[in-house]
Amino acid sequence: MGLFTLFFSAMLMGFSGAMMPGPMLTATINESYHRGFSAGPRMIIGHILLELLLVIGLIMGLGQILLISYVKSVIALVGGLFLIWMAWGIIKDAGLQRLNLELAAAGTTQKFQPEVIGVLTSLSNPYWILWWATIGLGYLVVAYEKGIIGLTAFFLGHISADFIWYALVAYAVTSGKRFITQKFYGLILMICGGFLGILAIYFIYSGIRFLAG
Q1: Which of 10, 62, 117, 132 could form a disulfide with 157 if both were Cys (CB 3.0 to 4.6 A apart)?
Q2: φ, ψ for residue 152 (rounded to 5)?
Q3: d(Cα 189, Cα 7) in Å, to the nearest integer?
Q4: DSSP character for 178?
C-alpha cells in the first residue's frame, strides 16, 4: 500500500468512525452551540493529542512485535472481522434512519476547556478504545511496513477526517443552517459502511498473506 493510498484510505476510514453518534459528536454539538465554532476544532485537538500518545505507546512497546508474521496475521484477521461487524452496524442503522443530528437538551460543560472535553469524551467511549485495539492497531501494522513515514501518512489521514467532520458539525450548529440533514447523513454513512466492508476484505486478505509468509 503506497503512501497516498495510506493517507486517503486512513482519511476515509476516519470519516467512518468520526461520523458515528457518540460522546464526541454530542459534546461537539453542545459546546459549539454554547461557545461558537472554535469549540469543535479545539475539542478535536484534545482528541488527537490523546490518539497521538496512544499511537506512540503502541509503537514504542509493540514495534518489533508487529513485524512477526503470526502477530500481524492475527491482528489483521481480527481487525477485518471487526470491520465487517462495524460496517454492517453502520449500514443497518443508516437504512433504518436511526441516526439523528438534533441538538439534545443537555447541560453545558463550560467548566472544562474544549481540549479537555475532547480527551474526556474519547476516554469515556469504550468503542473508541476497542477501535484502536483492533482496527487501528491493524492499520498500524500495514503502515509500519513503510516505516515512520508510513505511520505519519496514516495518522495525518486519520486526524484530517476528524478535523473536517467536526469542523463541519460545529459550523452547521453555529450557522443555524440545516444542510446536514438526516437523509444526507444516512447516505454518507451508507457509503462509509460500504468502504469499511471493502477494507475488511483487504485486512483479511493481508492476514492470510502474512500467515503464508
Answers
A1: 10
A2: -65, -45
A3: 20
A4: -
Q: Give pLDDT, residue 70.
A: 82
C-alpha cell at 24: 464526541
pTM of this prediction exceeds 0.85:
no
Q: Would the CA dihedral through 187, 168, 175, 119 be positive or negative?
A: positive
Residue 159 pLDDT: 93
Query: Whole-angstrom Cα distance, residue 152 to residue 104?
Result: 37
Distance from C-alpha of 26 to C-alpha of 136, rounded to nearest angstrom: 23
**Nearest CA among 144, 139, 146 for reference residue 161:** 139
Contact 83, 203 (CB under 8 A): yes
Give the cell for residue 15.
470519516
User: For the chain (length 213 residues), average pLDDT per consecutive 10?
Assistant: 87 83 77 83 92 81 69 81 79 63 48 84 72 79 86 93 92 72 72 81 85 76
- 151, three cell numbers: 505511520
- What is the rounded CA–CA span in Å between residue 6 and residue 16? 15
